[in-house]
Design a protein that fits this description.
Structural class: mainly alpha
Order of helices and strands: HHHEHHEEHHHHEH
Largest sheet: 2 strands, antiparallel
Number of helices: 10
Number of strands: 4
Shape: globular
Bound molecules: iron/sulfur cluster
């Protein structure tokens, strides 16, 4: 689900948008932490198992195979913002069409020409799903066929990123954040990407 781990450990930045939308820096900071954690975990995995990362641009079977990608509310807001305001033509029109045609349980509607059309704001789960040794076959979920080739994310970075997102949910106090991470508060907020009503987003995307 990558196209992903190209040396993307730098935080992307949208200064004007971030000034107007206080939730946006939270999301972009969180994603930068996730990407850093993934980059370190990939290096460690490659060294330990002497096996190279297989994910690369244009390799997108995973986006069609996975049927239960977790998506948090802040991530959903990010996807709305990016699809409506940042995707250019002709991609915007293609996304809109795919979202309009989307039916619950279909593969992810953001895949266009084997690539992720919302790569900048793709969900945390997509960022962390990385596979080594050889690309997934069509329909293969290597988590079940060859778990050893699937990256295990470093928990410390996942927790840090989740902590970064918590002010969006009204949790701003440091000790409350620590407690929320410990109790898995964020998981009470999760939706499944393939179960979302994407038509609502489609109707807000211009031609
Ligand atoms: S190797 Fe698998 S997980 Fe990685 S991009 Fe290709 S299909 Fe997706
Ligand atoms: S958002 Fe969709 S297209 Fe993008 S990486 Fe995730 S599953 Fe793939």
């Amino acid at each position: 689900m990558s196209q992903k781990v190209k040396k993307v450990t730098e935080r992307v930045s949208f200064p004007e948008d971030e000034k107007l939308r206080p939730w946006l820096p939270l999301l972009l900071d969180a994603y930068a932490i996730i990407d850093k954690g993934v980059s370190i975990a990939v290096r460690e995995h490659e060294k330990e198992y002497k096996s190279k990362l297989a994910c690369k641009k244009g390799c997108g079977h995973c986006c069609r195979t996975h049927s239960d990608i977790p998506l948090y509310p802040l991530e959903m807001v990010g996807i709305y913002w990016y699809s409506i305001e940042k995707s250019g033509r002709p991609l915007r029109g293609i996304i809109k069409k795919q979202l309009l045609e989307y039916r619950k349980g279909d593969p992810c509607p953001f895949q266009v020409d084997n690539a992720c059309a919302i790569h900048t704001v793709r969900p945390l789960a997509c960022r962390q799903f990385n596979v080594f040794s050889r690309p997934c076959s069509e329909g293969e979920d290597p988590y079940y066929t060859r778990r050893i080739d699937v990256l295990t994310p470093i928990e410390k970075y996942t927790h840090e990123a989740i902590k970064m997102m918590l002010p969006f949910y009204g949790i701003t106090d440091e000790s409350a954040k620590v407690q929320a991470v410990k109790t898995g508060f964020i998981h009470t907020q999760v939706q499944v990407l393939q179960a979302c009503k994407w038509e609502e987003l489609a109707l807000r995307i211009g031609e």
